[in-house]
C-alpha cells in the first residue's frame, strides 16, 4: 500500500495497481504511512473495509441509488445496470458513485476509486457496521476529512474537478417521449406548446428518428430535410435533442460500422474479433470508449448531427445494456431442450424461467469482451463502470473539437464519478408512481454530493400511466431541478402539460411559467455552486444541525436561500414540515401574485392546495425572480424582483453570464451584489453592479420578522 497526501485533508491509499479511471484530477505527494485511518481491513479473496458506526452517525452519498438521503440500513452494489424497475430492493441502478460521507461521532468522506464491482453494506448485515467490499484488490481509497458534510463534499468536488455547465436554455422546460416518431408529430407537439402558451425550450428525439436505430443517421422517411426541419423548429423556439445509443449496428455499407471494424475501434471478444451483442438495432458492436482513439473517433461523429444545427444529445444504453448475445440465447435454448418433456419440479421450472430472464445484461457476457488500453487487453467486467462515463466523455471531447467554446446540452444514463465534468445525467426509467417522486427528491442531494448537479428524473414518470394529479405534483417538484424534463415510455398515457384535464393542464402550465421566473435564481445558484465547488440541492441538515433536521428526508435546500417541501402523496392537501428556524413562506400559484407569511420554527402542518408550491425563504436570505417567457432566450432581463426575508439584514450575489460559451471559466461573468440592512423603520440598500448590462431595475420586496412588506425600486 502506498499513501499520498492530496491537500491538507485528503489521503489516498493505493492498493495494488489500480486501473486509471480519471475520476480524480489532483495528484498527490507520496508520504510515509503504513496504516489506514478509521477502517479495519479484512483481506480474503476480496478486500473488506470495516467501520463501526456510532448510533447517531448518518451516512450520506452514493449518488444514484435507492433508499434515503441517509443511506444507513441498506446494501448497495456499484455495478452499472440497465434496470427499468426501480423498486426499493434494487441494489444497482445505472451509475456507480462510490462516494460516502460519515457524519456523526467522526466526520469523513470515503471514495473508492475502482471501476469494477464495489459493495457498500451500510448497516444492512449488521446495523452498526459499515462494510465496503472491493472485489478486485487494485484500487484507490480516498479519505477526506472535514468539520462538516458540506466541507467534505466541497473538498471532494475539488479533487474531482469542475462540473459540467449546460447552455442556459437547458434550464428551460424540456419535453420528451419515446417517441415523437416523425417530423409531423414533433411539430404538432411544438405547436401545442405555442397554442397553449406554455414555455418550452427543447423537444427530444428518441430512437425512432434514426434509420434502423443506426447512430448518427436520420430516417429520410420520417424526418425528410432534417437540417431545414431543425432550423424551422429552432425558429419556433425549440431545440431538438436526439438520442445516441452505445451499440453500433452491424451492417454492410453503414459507415460507422465499417470504419470501426477496419480501424479496430470496437471492443473485442476472446478471439480478438469485434464483440457481438444485440440491442435496439439487432446485432451491434460496442465502441471501445476506454480507448483514446476510439473515443475521439466516435466523438467526432456527433458532428454529423451538429452540422444539422443540433445543440444537445442524450446518451442512452451505455451501461452498456445488452438485450442478448448468441451465447446467452444458446444456453437458454439448451436448458429448454433439456427440460423438454420432463416433469419439472418447482426449482427446475423457475430455473428455466430465469434462464430466459437472465439473457439480458448477463455477467457472463460482460466477462466475455475486452478493451484495448494502449495495446493491452482489459476484461470489460473489471472496468464495467467506466463505459457510460467514457461514451459521454467521447461526446464532450468531440464537441470540444468541433466547437471549442460552445456549451452543448449533454446527459448520460450511465455514469461514474468524474463524468460530471462532461455532462449531466437523467435518472433513467422510473415509473409514474408517487413513490418515485419521493425517490427523486431523495436522490437529488445524493447526486449533487457526487458532482452531478445537472440532473433530474423523467418528470411524470417513464413507465406506467400518470394521472393529472401525479403529473402536477411531480412538475411542482421538478421546477427546482436543473434538468427539468418530462419523459414517458412507449405505450403509456401521454403526459405533456396539455394531455390531462383542464385543471391539471393549467396548474402544470403555471408551474412551468414559475420555473422560468425562477431561472435567474436557479442559474445563479447553479453557477456559484459550480465555481465554488459546492452543491445546489442539499439535505437540510447541511445547514441546520439540530436532531430533527438531521432526520428530515423530504424537504430540501435549493441553493443558498430556499427550502422546499414537495407534495409526493396522492389526494394530499397538505403535509408536515419541520422548520429549523423561522422562514418566509410564499405559496406560489401564479408567479405574479405573491403573498407572504412568516412560519415560525417548529413542527408545522401546512395546507397545500393542488395548485400551490410552497417556497420557503430562509432567514436573512434572498430570492431573485425574473419574468417568464416562452423560451429562455426570450426572457426579458431588465427587471429583477428581489424578495428578501430580512430580520436584520440580508444579502445576495446574483450571478449571470452569456449562457452559451465557456468564458465563465476565465472569470468572464457578471455579478450584482445586493445588501439590505434594517434601520429603525426603513432599510438601507446597497447595490454593486459588476458588469451586468441587462438588468436596469431591481424591484425589492423586503419582508420583516412581523411579515410587513416594504417595496422599493432601485434603478441600476
Ligand atoms: O430500452 O430509447 O432510459 O429514456 O426512452 C429502452 C428508448 C431504451 C431507455 C431510456 C429511455 C428511452 C428508451 N431507452
Describe this structure in words.
With 716 residues, the protein is an alpha+beta fold. The longest helix is centred in the C-terminal third of the chain and has 31 residues, at 502-532. The protein has a 9-stranded parallel beta sheet. Strands 3-1-2-13-10-9-6 form a 7-stranded antiparallel beta sheet. Strands 29-30-31-36-33-34 form a 6-stranded antiparallel beta sheet. The chain has 13 helices and 43 strands. Strand 4 (40-43) and strand 5 (47-52) form a beta hairpin. Ligand MIG binds at residues 178, 206-207, 243, 316-317, 413, 428-429, 487. Ligand MIG is lined by residues 178, 206-207, 243, 316-317, 413, 428-429, 487.
Residue ranges: pLDDT <50 for 5 or more in a row?
none
Global morphology: globular
Write down the overall mean pLDDT. Answer: 97
The largest pleated sheet is described as:
9 strands, parallel
Distance between the termini: 59 Å
According to DSSP, the number of beta strands is: 43
Radius of gyration, CA atoms, in whole angstroms = 26 Å
Put simply, the count of helices is: 13
Beta strand %: 25-35%
Structural class: alpha+beta
Main sheet: which strands, in order across?
Answer: 26-25-23-20-16-15-14-28-27
Query: What ligand molecules are bound, each kind once?
Result: ligand MIG
**Helix share, percent:** 10-25%
Amino acid at each position: 500500500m502506498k499513501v499520498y497526501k492530496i491537500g491538507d485533508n485528503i489521503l489516498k491509499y493505493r492498493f495494488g495497481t489500480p486501473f486509471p479511471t480519471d475520476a480524480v484530477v489532483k495528484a498527490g505527494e507520496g508520504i510515509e504511512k503504513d496504516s489506514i485511518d478509521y477502517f479495519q481491513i479484512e483481506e480474503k479473496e476480496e478486500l473488506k473495509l470495516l467501520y463501526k458506526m456510532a448510533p447517531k452517525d448518518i451516512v450520506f452519498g452514493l449518488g444514484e441509488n435507492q433508499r434515503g438521503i441517509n443511506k444507513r440500513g441498506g446494501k448497495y452494489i456499484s455495478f452499472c445496470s440497465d434496470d427499468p424497475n426501480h423498486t426499493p430492493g434494487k441494489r444497482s441502478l445505472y451509475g456507480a458513485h462510490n462516494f460516502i460521507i460519515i457524519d456523526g461521532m467522526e466526520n469523513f468522506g470515503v471514495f473508492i476509486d475502482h471501476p469494477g464491482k464495489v459493495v457498500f453494506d451500510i448497516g444492512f448485515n449488521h446495523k452498526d457496521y459499515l462494510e465496503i467490499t472491493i472485489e478486485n484488490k487494485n484500487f484507490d481509497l480516498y479519505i477526506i476529512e472535514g468539520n462538516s458534510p458540506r466541507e467534505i463534499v466541497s473538498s471532494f468536488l475539488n479533487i474531482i474537478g469542475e462540473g459540467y455547465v449546460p447552455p442556459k436554455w437547458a434550464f428551460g422546460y424540456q419535453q420528451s417521449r419515446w417517441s415523437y416518431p416523425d417530423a409531423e408529430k414533433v411539430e404538432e407537439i411544438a405547436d401545442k406548446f405555442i397554442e397553449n402558451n406554455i414555455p418550452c425550450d427543447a423537444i427530444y428525439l428518441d430512437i425512432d428518428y434514426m434509420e434502423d436505430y443506426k447512430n448518427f443517421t436520420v430516417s429520410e422517411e420520417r424526418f425528410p430535410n432534417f437540417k431545414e426541419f431543425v432550423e424551422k423548429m429552432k425558429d419556433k423556439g425549440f431545440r431538438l435533442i436526439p438520442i445516441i445509443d452505445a451499440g453500433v449496428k452491424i451492417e454492410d455499407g453503414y459507415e460507422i460500422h465499417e470504419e470501426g471494424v477496419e480501424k479496430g475501434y470496437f471492443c473485442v471478444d476472446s478471439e480478438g474479433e469485434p464483440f457481438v451483442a444485440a440491442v435496439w438495432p439487432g446485432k451491434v458492436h460496442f465502441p471501445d470508449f476506454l480507448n483514446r482513439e476510439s473515443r475521439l473517433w466516435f466523438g467526432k461523429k456527433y458532428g454529423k448531427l451538429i452540422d444539422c444545427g443540433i445543440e444537445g444529445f442524450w446518451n442512452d444504453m451505455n451501461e452498456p445494456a445488452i438485450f442478448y448475445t448468441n451465447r446467452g440465447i444458446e444456453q437458454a435454448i439448451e436448458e429448454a431442450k433439456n427440460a423438454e418433456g420432463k416433469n419439472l419440479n418447482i426449482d427446475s421450472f423457475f430455473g428455466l424461467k430465469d434462464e430466459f430472464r437472465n439473457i439480458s445484461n448477463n455477467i457472463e457476457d460482460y466477462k466475455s469482451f475486452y478493451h484495448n488500453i494502449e495495446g493491452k487487453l482489459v476484461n470489460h467486467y473489471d472496468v464495467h463502470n467506466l463505459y457510460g462515463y467514457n461514451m459521454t466523455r467521447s461526446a464532450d471531447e468531440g464537441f470540444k473539437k468541433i466547437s471549442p467554446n460552445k456549451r452543448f446540452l449533454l446527459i448520460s444514463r450511465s455514469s461514474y464519478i468524474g463524468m460530471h465534468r462532461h455532462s449531466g445525467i437523467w435518472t433513467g426509467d422510473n415509473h409514474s408512481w408517487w413513490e418515485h417522486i419521493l425517490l427523486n427528491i431523495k436522490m437529488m442531494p445524493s447526486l449533487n454530493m457526487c458532482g452531478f448537479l445537472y440532473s433530474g428524473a423523467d418528470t411524470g414518470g417513464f413507465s406506467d400511466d400518470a394521472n393529472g394529479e401525479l403529473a402536477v405534483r411531480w412538475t411542482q417538484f421538478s421546477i427546482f431541478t436543473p434538468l427539468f424534463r418530462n419523459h414517458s415510455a412507449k405505450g403509456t398515457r401521454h403526459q405533456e402539460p396539455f394531455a390531462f384535464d383542464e385543471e391539471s393542464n393549467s396548474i402544470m402550465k403555471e408551474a412551468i411559467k414559475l420555473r422560468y421566473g425562477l431561472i435567474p435564481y436557479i442559474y445563479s445558484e447553479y453557477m456559484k455552486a459550480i465555481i465554488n465547488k459546492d452543491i445546489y440541492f442539499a439535505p437540510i441538515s447541511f445547514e441546520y444541525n439540530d436532531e430533527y433536521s438531521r432526520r428530515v428526508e423530504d424537504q430540501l435546500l435549493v441553493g443558498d436561500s430556499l427550502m422546499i417541501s414537495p407534495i409526493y402523496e396522492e389526494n394530499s392537501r397538505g403535509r408536515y414540515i419541520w422548520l429549523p428556524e423561522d422562514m418566509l413562506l410564499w405559496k406560489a400559484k401564479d408567479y405574479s401574485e405573491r403573498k407572504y407569511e412568516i412560519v415560525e420554527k417548529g413542527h408545522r402542518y401546512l395546507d397545500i392546495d393542488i395548485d400551490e408550491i410552497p417556497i420557503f425563504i430562509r432567514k436573512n436570505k434572498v430570492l431573485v425572480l425574473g419574468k417568464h417567457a416562452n423560451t429562455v432566450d426570450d426572457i426579458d432581463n431588465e427587471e429583477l424582483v428581489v424578495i428578501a426575508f430580512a430580520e436584520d439584514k440580508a444579502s445576495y450575489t446574483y450571478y449571470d453570464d452569456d449562457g452559451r460559451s465557456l468564458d465563465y471559466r476565465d472569470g468572464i461573468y457578471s455579478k450584482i451584489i445586493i445588501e439590505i440592512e434594517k434601520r429603525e423603520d426603513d432599510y438601507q440598500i446597497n447595490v454593486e453592479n459588476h458588469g451586468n448590462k441587462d438588468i436596469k431595475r431591481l424591484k425589492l420586496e423586503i419582508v420583516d420578522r412581523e411579515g410587513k412588506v416594504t417595496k422599493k425600486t432601485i434603478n441600476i
